[in-house]
Amino acid sequence: KISMMDDISKTDAEVFDAIKKEGVRIRDGLELIPSENYASKAVLQALGNFFNCKYSEGYPKKRYYGGNQFVDEVETLAIERAKKAFKVPHANVQPYSGSPANFAVYIATCQPGDTIMGQNLPDGGHLTHGWKASVTGQFYKSILYHVKSDGYLDLKEIRELAEKHKPKLIWVGATAYAREFPFEELGKIADSVGAYLAADIAHISGLVIAGVHKSPVPYAHIVTTTTHKTLRGPRGGIIMVTQKGLHKDPDLAYKIDRAVFPGLQGGPHDNQTAAIAVALGEELKPDFKKYAEQIVKNSKALAKSLMDNGIKLVTNGTDNHMILVDLTPFGKGNGIFIQDALEMANITVNKNTIPAEPSSPFYPSGIRLGTPAITTRGMKEKEMQLIGKWIAEIIMEVKDFELPEDKEERAKYFKKFKESLNQNKKINSIKKDVVVLCRKFPLYPGMGVLR
Ligand code: DSN
Q: Which residue has the higher pLDDT, 395 or 361?
C-alpha cells in the first residue's frame, strides 16, 4: 500500500508542521479561487511515489534512457484518456504546467517576431497570451484584444485586428472571463486570415469534458489546458492537436511534441503523468458530469446571492465556474482590502483586474471567485446563498478603505487596516460560521493529517 505522511512526520518536523497547518487551513476555510481544486486521494497517491524518481526524456517507446517500460504504461494511459475525454486525435501530457504548454504552442507555430493575438490581461486574458511582462509579449509582436463595456468579448474588434495585423496565431481562452467563449466565431476569424487558433481552456477543461461548456475542438487547431483546475488533477499541462489542426498542417502533432521535448523541457515528471492519468480516468466516469454540472449551478447561485445582496458583477452573472466582482462602486484599487478582509473570515479569493481597470494589476479593483473547490467538498445551492451573503456583508464592512495615492502612505494605511480587521466583530463572527459550515463538508476523510 502506498501511504502518505507516514515518514515525514518523524523525519522532518518543520515541513510536516507546515503541511499540517495547510491541512487545517483548507479544512476550515472556503476555497473560492477559481483556478484551485482538491484532487482526489488517488491523484495525490499517484503523485507521491517513486515515479517521481525516473528520467524519461522522449515519448512512449522512444526514450533515451532505459527502465521506462512502466512509465510508458502510465504515459500511454494518460494520452489515450486525454484523447478520449476531449475527442482529439493527438495529446501531449508532458508540459510541466499551463505556461510551458502555451510556450510550446508558440515554438511549434511561430518564429520569434511573428505577430500573435490574445486577450488583454486586464480584460481577463492570461500572461502567456502576449502580455508585455511575459516573454510571449516580448519575443512576438503581440496584438491584444478587449472586452466591450458590458464585459463580453468584442468580436468586432477581434475581427478588425485580425484582418489588419494578419497574426500567425490567435489565442482564445482566459483567466478571468465568466462567460462562454465564442469558439466558433474565433475559429472563423482565424480561418479567414490563415492563423492558427489555439484555445487555452485551462479554467474550463473539466466543464468541456462534461459537456457543460461548448468544446473548442471542432473550431481550434490546438487546445491547451492545465490539469489542476476544473480538471481536478495534479499540477500539469496538456496540449492537444485537433483534426482541424492536422488538416491545416499534417506535421502539427510532431511539431508540438518536438516543441515540448527537446524544445522546452527535459525529462517529463512521470509522477505527474501518472496522476494526470488517474484524474482523466475519474473524469471519464459518469459522476464527473454531475460534479461539473453542480460547479456551474453553484456558480450561478453564488452570483445571484451576491447580486441580491447589492454586489456588482462583471457581465451581471456567469456561464461557468467563475464570478468576477466589480468593486468600482466603492472606489478603485480596493481588491486587496476585500481579499484580506475575506481571508480574515477564512474565505480565500484573489484580487483581480476588471475590464477597463481604473487602477493597476497589483492593486486591482475587483475580486475573482469560483466554485470548483467548494463543489468538490459537496456544497450546493443552499450553501452558495449563505456564502454570497457573507461575502457581501464583509465587503460592506470594509468598502470605505481606499488605496492611498501616495505610495509612502500605503504601509501605514495597510497596518491600520489590518488592525481594524482584527477588531471587526462582524468578520470574526462570520469566520466562526464559516468554520462550522466547512466542518460539515469534510475534506480527505481518513487522511490522518486533517483529523
Ligand atoms: N494562475 C492561474 C489562475 O489563477 O487563473 C492562471 O495561470
A: 395
Classify the phi-psi angles of 309: left when phi > 0, otherwise alpha if psi is within -120 to 50, otherwise beta: alpha
What residues are in contact with ligand 1 under a 6 Å CB criterion? Answer: 35, 98, 126, 175
Q: Give the pLDDT confidence of 30-72 residue by residue, as tens digits.
A: 999 999 999 999 999 999 999 999 999 999 999 999 999 999 9
For the purposes of burial, counting CB atoms within 10 Å of the CB of 345, is it exposed (0-12), middle (13-18) or buried (19 or more)?
A: buried
Q: Is 73 a catalytic residue?
A: no
Q: State the Cα–Cα distance between residues 175 and 181, nearest whole angstrom.
A: 12
Report the distance separating Cα 17 and Cα 144, nearest Å.
45
Number of Cβ within 10 Å of residue 214's Cβ equals 17
Angle, in degrees to the nearest 10, between helices 286-308 and 381-398: 40
Ligand 1 centroid to 35 CA: how many Å?
6
- What does 182-217 look like in DSSP terms, one character per residue? -HHHHHHHHHHHT-EEEEE-TTTHHHHHTTSS--ST
pTM > 0.90: yes or no: yes
Dihedral sign computed on CA atoms, order 34, 36, 38, 40: positive
Instruction: Quick: pLDDT tens for 358-394.
Output: 998 889 999 999 999 999 999 999 999 999 999 999 9
User: How far, in Å, is the centroid of ligand 1 from the Cα of 125?
Assistant: 10
Contacts of 140 (CB under 8 A, 6+ apart): 106, 110, 112, 113, 114, 115, 116, 130
Q: Which mutation among 31, 102, 103, 203 tests ligand 1's pocket best, with the greatest number of atoms within 8 A of CB? A: 203
Q: How many CB atoms lie within 10 A of CB 244?
A: 21
Q: What residue type is assigned to position 190 of the chain? A: A
